[in-house]
Design goal:
The chain is mainly beta. It has 6 domains: 68 residues, no CATH class; 33 residues, Ribbon (Laminin); 48 residues, Complement Module, domain 1 (Ribbon), CATH 2.10.70.10; 35 residues, Ribbon (Laminin); 78 residues, Immunoglobulin-like (Sandwich); 121 residues, no CATH class. It contains 4 helices and 39 strands. Strands 32, 33, 35, 36, 38 and 39 form a 6-stranded mixed β-sheet that branches. Strand 22 and strand 23 form a beta hairpin. The longest helix has 16 residues. It is elongated and about 190 Å long.
Length: 465
């Protein structure tokens, strides 16, 4: 009951003395507790006890005393404390326990620095850097801070000067232009004439290069060539007949006029004397020319055949050559065409025909030639241009009813008839084989097959019907 009274008094005192607060602590006070026990109760407790004793001890309790309330100190416990100190950090004033009056940039209750960068209100475009009571805006690398001290603009920096040229800038910030130009007699060989500052802090395009470009001023080209300036060089456009870096080489060969096309000559005899006009060679620059030919003079006695006439002119100053060549083709005089026999076929050589013609006739079955003619007669055209025997060839206009009747007119009849038509491929092939067989078996004519063995084949036999 005493303890409860002390607590109530202490609470009342705090209401009156706000700087003081009662505190409790453990304490000991005398108290007594008695109990009785007996001693000397006889031998082995068989007799009555005669002595009684009482025991006393200290008891624990709760005691109270007045001390400064939490948050105050001083002799009268009336000085407020802020975070255990009578002063506040960052220039603040302690006005009540743990409550400060703070200057701008610091927040109560203990004047902690306000981190203006923690929210969006700072307005910095890139980076916000907090300081005691303040903050500043900063830009990332490659940017510069605008006059508002908050926003940032890309800065590409100076793009650099170039050799033998100049660069002019509007600024180095985003969107700015850099314009290049080369000095007189120089040309821009690579890169870009105009570059712009880009959002990645680089200048667009490539830095140009200026190279000397007026070599033609010294007239380096020769022999009437046209000089063309290039970047770092020049080019000579040579006149006709010249080449080389500066058109110093004469590359014009001799000129030729009067060079013949191939010449065709008909010879009634086995040889013919023929003359031709020689080609003319010249050089526009008057250089000496050496001319050689495979014929010492422009005339020669030719047999039948093909002969190449060649002239070669060499220009002494540069060794270039011009050639004129043509063929002289000597052939026997051509014969007029033979008639194709009615109801029959005309078979002639289809190879080397311009050197000679060897023809024979065959009749369709049930027809034959008149009795005054012979199947074994060859019709030959040679150098004279005339047919032997004389043309025309006979027609197969004599009808016969049987082979025996045909044999009556001509004993060789069976070997010179065909059926049903020479337009039939099998029949045509048979006629061609017979022609080759008869030509090779005829004395005096067989050499035409021997001489041109590769051509004397049935496929080259000309069949007309």
């Amino acid at each position: 009951m005493v303890g409860l009274q002390i607590v109530i008094v202490g609470l009342l005192l705090r209401d009156v003395y706000t700087s003081y607060c009662p505190t409790t602590h453990n304490c000991s006070i005398p108290c007594s507790t008695s109990y009785t026990y007996y001693r000397s109760c006889g031998f082995f407790g068989w007799s009555s006890c005669t002595v009684r004793q009482t025991v006393y001890k200290l008891c624990s309790s709760i005691c109270y005393k007045n001390e400064c309330c939490s948050g105050y100190n001083g002799s009268s416990c009336d000085i407020p404390l802020c975070d255990g100190s009578t002063t506040c950090p960052n220039g603040g004033t302690c006005i009540s326990p743990d409550e400060c009056s703070c200057p701008t940039g610091f927040s109560p209750p203990l004047c902690a620095d306000i981190d203006e960068c923690s929210g969006p209100s700072h307005g910095c475009e890139h980076e916000c850097r907090n300081t005691d009571g303040l903050y500043t805006c900063a830009c990332r690398e490659g940017y510069v801070r605008n006059p508002d001290l908050k926003t940032c603009t890309e800065d590409c920096g100076h793009p650099g000067n170039i050799k033998d040229g100049t660069v002019s800038l509007t600024s180095t910030l985003l969107g700015a232009s850099a314009r290049y130009s080369c000095h007189q007699d120089y040309g821009m060989a690579s890169g870009d004439e105009v570059r712009q500052c880009q959002s990645d802090f680089s200048w667009s395009g490539q830095e140009p290069t200026c190279i000397f470009a007026n070599y033609c001023e010294s007239s380096p080209c020769l022999n009437g060539a046209t000089c063309v300036n290039l970047l770092g060089s020049f080019r000579c456009e040579c006149a006709h007949g010249w080449n080389g870096n500066i058109c110093e080489n004469d590359i014009e060969p001799p000129m030729v006029t009067g060079c013949h096309e191939d010449i065709h000559v008909n010879a009634t005899e086995q040889t013919i004397e023929y003359s031709w006009t020689e080609p003319q060679f010249s050089d526009s620059r008057g250089s000496a020319i050496d001319i050689v030919s495979n014929y010492p003079t422009p005339e020669f006695t030719f047999p039948w055949g093909d002969f190449t006439v060649q002239y070669v002119a060499t220009k002494i100053s540069n060794g270039l050559r011009t050639e004129c060549s043509f063929k002289i083709k000597v052939r026997p005089t051509a014969c007029s065409p033979l008639n194709v026999p009615i109801n029959g076929a005309l078979l002639c050589n289809g190879w080397q025909a311009d050197y000679g013609r060897f023809c024979m006739i065959m009749c369709q079955q049930n027809f034959t030639i008149g009795p005054s003619f012979s199947y074994s007669m060859w019709y030959v055209c040679g150098a004279s241009g005339n047919w032997i025997a004389a043309s025309p060839v006979p027609d197969c206009q004599v009808p016969v009813d049987s082979e025996n009747e045909g044999l009556f007119y001509h004993p060789e009849y069976a070997g010179y008839v065909f059926t049903p038509s020479c337009q039939d491929q099998v029949t045509k092939s048979t006629l061609q084989n017979l022609y080759i067989e008869y030509l090779k078996g005829t004395s005096g004519f067989s050499s035409f097959c021997t001489t041109y063995g590769n051509e004397c084949v049935k496929e080259n036999v000309d069949v007309q019907c």
